[in-house]
Automatic annotation (TrEMBL):
Coiled coil: none annotated. InterPro entries: Cyclic-di-GMP_PDE-like, EAL_dom, EAL_sf. PROSITE patterns: EAL. This is EAL domain-containing protein. Keywords: Plasmid.
Length: 199
C-alpha cells in the first residue's frame, strides 16, 4: 500500500492538481453511494491549495455534493505554506459553502500549534507517529485541551495498535481514531461500483 506522497513521488508540476480533480470527480459522480456513510474526509494537495483558481473550483464542486446531503471535510495539507491570509480565505470560502475543514497531519511540517490556534477548524488530525514519544505528552494534552475548548474534533491518525492508548497516551482516549488497528485494506475480488462508474 502506497501513501499519496509515495505514489506521487516523481510527479511533475500540475499532476497533484489533476489527481485532486480526479478524486473530486469520483466523489461527485458517486455521491448517492456515499450519502449516509458519515463525513467524507478529502485531502487537498498543497499544489492545488497554492493555486487559488484550482482550489476554489474544487471547493465549489464539493459544495455541490454537500447540497445533496454528503458531509464533506477538506483536509488541509501540512505541506501548504502560502501564509495565514491565503489559508484564512480558503477556509472561510469552504465553510461559507457548508464544508468543514481539518488541519491534517498535525505534528508534521506546517501543521503546528500556530496553525491550529490561528484559524477556525472543525477537526485536528494528529500525525501520531510524528509525536509518538513520551516527551510530547504535554503538547498532545495541550492540543486535546485546545480542541475541547474550541469544539474541534480531535482525530489520532496512523493508529497501528490500539494498545498504545492504554500507556502514556491514555489521556487522549476520548479522541477519534484512524488507522490500520481499526481496519485494514483488503483484496478486491470484484471492482466496486464506485470505481467501475469512473471508467
Amino acid at each position: 500500500m502506497l501513501s499519496p506522497g509515495q505514489f506521487m513521488a516523481n510527479s511533475q508540476p500540475g499532476e497533484w492538481i489533476l489527481l485532486d480533480r480526479e478524486i473530486v470527480t469520483l466523489v461527485t459522480e458517486n455521491v448517492s453511494e456515499l450519502i449516509g456513510m458519515g463525513p467524507l474526509f478529502i485531502n487537498i494537495s498543497s499544489e492545488t491549495l497554492s493555486s487559488p483558481s484550482d482550489a476554489y473550483a474544487l471547493i465549489k464542486s464539493l459544495a455541490g455534493v454537500y447540497s445533496l446531503g454528503l458531509e464533506i471535510v477538506l483536509e488541509i495539507s501540512e505541506k501548504y505554506s502560502d501564509g495565514s491570509e491565503s489559508l484564512d480565505s480558503l477556509l472561510s470560502f469552504a465553510r461559507s459553502l457548508g464544508l468543514r475543514v481539518a488541519i491534517d497531519d498535525f505534528g508534521s511540517e506546517n501543521s503546528n500549534m500556530a496553525r491550529l490556534v490561528g484559524h477556525k477548524w472543525d477537526y485536528c488530525k494528529v500525525d501520531l507517529p510524528a509525536l509518538l514519544v513520551p516527551e510530547n505528552l504535554t503538547l498532545l494534552t495541550e492540543i486535546r485541551d485546545y480542541c475541547l475548548a474550541n469544539h474541534v474534533g480531535l482525530i489520532l491518525e496512523k493508529v497501528e495498535d490500539v494498545s498504545i492508548l492504554s500507556g502514556w497516551l491514555k489521556p487522549l482516549n476520548g479522541a477519534s481514531l484512524q488507522g490500520f488497528a481499526l481496519s485494514k485494506p483488503g483484496v478486491l475480488n470484484k471492482m466496486p461500483s464506485l470505481l467501475q462508474s469512473s471508467r
